[in-house]
Amino acid sequence: MGSxxxxxxxxTRFYTQGREIHAVDGVSFDIQxxxxxxxxxxxxxxxxVTALSLLSLIPWPPGRIIDGExxxxxxxILDFDAERMRRIRGKEISMIFQEPMTSLNPILSIxxxxxxxxxxxxxxGQRAAxxxxxxxxxxxxxxxxxxxxxxxxxxxSGGMRQRVMIAMALICSPKLILADEPTTALDVTIQAQILxxxxxxxxxxxxxxxxxxxxxxxxxxxxxxxxVMYAGRIVEQGVARAxxxxxxxxxxxxxIASVPRMNEPxxxxxxxxxxxxxxxxxxxxxxxxxxxxxxxxxxxxxxxxPPLREVEPGHWSACLLTDLExxxxxxx
Amino acid sequence: xxxxxxxxxxxMIPTLLGVAVLIFILMRLIPxxxxxxxxxxxxxxxxxxxxxxxxxxxxxxxxxxxxxxxWIVGIARFDFGISMWTGQPISYEIGLRFGLSLxxxxxxxxxxxxxAIPLGTLSALKQDTLIDYAVRVFSIAGLATPSFxxxxxxxxxxxxxxxxxxxxxxxxxxxxxxxxxxQLIWPALATGYRxxxxxxxxxxxxxxxxxxxxxxxxxxxxxxxxxxxxxRHAVKNALLPIxxxxxxxxxxxxxxxxxxxxxxxLNGIGLLFVKAxxxxxxxxxxxxxxxxxxxxxxTNLVVDILYAWIDPRVxxx
Lengths: 332, 317
Known about the structure:
The structure holds two protein chains of two kinds. Chain A is α/β, with parallel strands linked by helices. Chain A is built from twelve helices and twelve strands. Chain A starts with a strand and ends with a helix.
């Protein structure tokens, strides 16, 4: 397995009301062929902006990618002009959005929205596109796909719409799918179905998936590796299971402690929230961004913003504390 | 859908009946009647007897209920009666002018639509740039400029710089299109400017709103060409409020172009309307009001049908 996509020092800023918001501030990570990489963090930490930046979908104004590289198949796609970028979108890298209710065009038929994606990236005719669309709808588990092609989004339930979105994302056989909180807007029972479907399709087609979520339960179950983001930075990076079992950054351990565990008796374990609010991304200080909320903070953390360092092979953490000093059990 | 249209057409009957009652009563409430106005110029030689005779000739001595029923029964048979002032059949008087007013309204609508949708879209796309400001100045100016005043400027301009005036005689377009257009293009421009200003502003705000919607981002993420994103996913979705405005303005143009018609010396419906009101020409005013009401209702119906055609979520039964 090799790297499919390499992100290097990505910086995206938003300029609103005379302020400069450091939404994504120097993010680097790799995506391997066929893997599912999760990006986790609370609202506003820059996970969605990271995904949108990969496809240059940040609307200007107010946002702009000011620095960084995104290497895909040996080329830095951030250098691409609009037309070359367009040919990447939906063809090589496609995206699934959070809100299936609003992410489809309400006045175009499902069939049209599927076939236009095919037509934008191939010279094949309408008929071939139509056949491909029906095939994809069947593949994502939509009954009577040929009949559903002529229907409109309002005639589909939320879960069915998200299936349509998945079909749309996969229709050109992309190498990478960016799934931005694909199940957040759905019922819990539907969430499991959709995630299982995505997992099955990614195994079947070998597509890599970036799964953006704030739900650690999803990470544990569906992701191979994880990036934990906080305030525009990646604070911890590594194999999902290792991070879940043994977090090395106080923020990650705080996140894990704030999630209920179904395998422990009720009442045995209390949920521990992370106190405080994320910092204002328009007015960042010199020190660690997690400093004000950190239970393990020390004097040097106030002035030093630690970079990611490898704490064990394949496991990176942006914290000054060594393994011995950091004991999640002692903190709770 | 067909059932819906049939029901809407049937619903026109009570609406028009309401309009008929209202305008009938309003006309009789205006002090003075057509006979007094007709004889006002004759000086002192008019006797009560002559006036009574004239009233009975026009049927004004009958009871109001009888007059109303007589009029409505006529309308039901598409017989609008005879103008009390000129003595000509009303259908003839209106027919003489309706073509001209309709043509100006259609031309102004075409002009406004063809100008407003591209301009408004461009303005939305280039929000807060020089292009946007230019379009906004253009449309604010259009809103602030009365069309008759623009018409006067046009005519003065032609006279001073080209020693030319648009022809005064109306030629139907099927007789001589060139002569027809050289006369009617100017009032259509004068009214179309304001009209397009209204529609441009509506287009700009509607497109701006749609461009912020999630599905436009999806369309871009799918790798569609920008032109397709714009036309198929933004402008088409923004059309509903735009066609509402266009429909309302169109209906207004058919009856409301009084001063502009006067400026361009056009013998249109607006002028006929004002003269008829001034003369207390009951039957003529009533017929014209019914006509304008009809135009509004039909335009609204067409707009509603267009809604359903554009937006599949709109379904009438």
